[in-house]
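request received
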Amino acid sequence: MKTIEEFLESKNIRVTAMRLLIYKFLAEKQVAVTLSDIENAFEKADRTTLYRTIKTFEEKEIVHQIDDGTGITKYALCEKGCNCEIETDLHLHFHCNNCNETICLTEHKIPQIKVPDGFVSENVNLVVKGICDKCSGQ
Amino acid sequence: MKTIEEFLESKNIRVTAMRLLIYKFLAEKQVAVTLSDIENAFEKADRTTLYRTIKTFEEKEIVHQIDDGTGITKYALCEKGCNCEIETDLHLHFHCNNCNETICLTEHKIPQIKVPDGFVSENVNLVVKGICDKCSGQ
DNA sequence: ACAATAAATGCACTTCCATTGCATTGGTTA
DNA sequence: TAACCAATGCAATGGAAGTGCATTTATTGT
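response:
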């Protein structure tokens, strides 16, 4: 079990207080978060720093971006089973129309999609919308 | 073969010069277009009019919205086989990373997606990214 | 045909998110 | 300790989406 510091270093990300905090914040969350979510959680920090931190995490492939159709980009830590680098191996995302949260269904792989002749599929983005387990369980 | 005027009227859309032009523009295009695309095509018209025309078309279900992950909403005419009202019967969209165009693969239905227990799927958005037929055929 | 009414259009403005330039701070290394 | 580079903070910009209101255009009833 690596420490977060060691993990970040192994990904060539310089360890700073801010980055540790943001990483922990993402790790605690079970859902994908927006920049504003992070902003609200760290009111003392500057928007830009949070923005660039997330971008750094994205480049170093420890965070992936999710476009769930709400128009606002969301982010989530890549977890075991999330091979974002391997574009053909993307999992799907679920967006709850009730609580408005978006979660990664890491274990649910996207089925092979057939495209017409001449088309080359490099990457698939699949967002299922509906009611999540918490909201439907009421 | 109905005229466009008759078609619009049958959908309870009042026929105006602007709407006819925009409809024709969409019909000519084989790809999904952004608001800016329309704006560029009709520089004399006001942005708001174009915006609201598209929204009207959307409400009356002759146009559907596509979120292809570029962050910019695109629109396309609903064609034969496009039953946008029936949410479970959505076709998929293909976004070309080369020419940056998004096209509707109307005949390609989205496969049934399994979601975990407790989750209720209401709607599925699937965008495949890659290289389109025109670009790969070089 | 004309007045009354309703819808469509145009203009101005606002909001929200994403992004960038530049100055400053802070940590690393020679 | 000086020099350097990365990280942070501040300010500002840009683009797209959306809204309020005045004006024009079309429709309806008399």
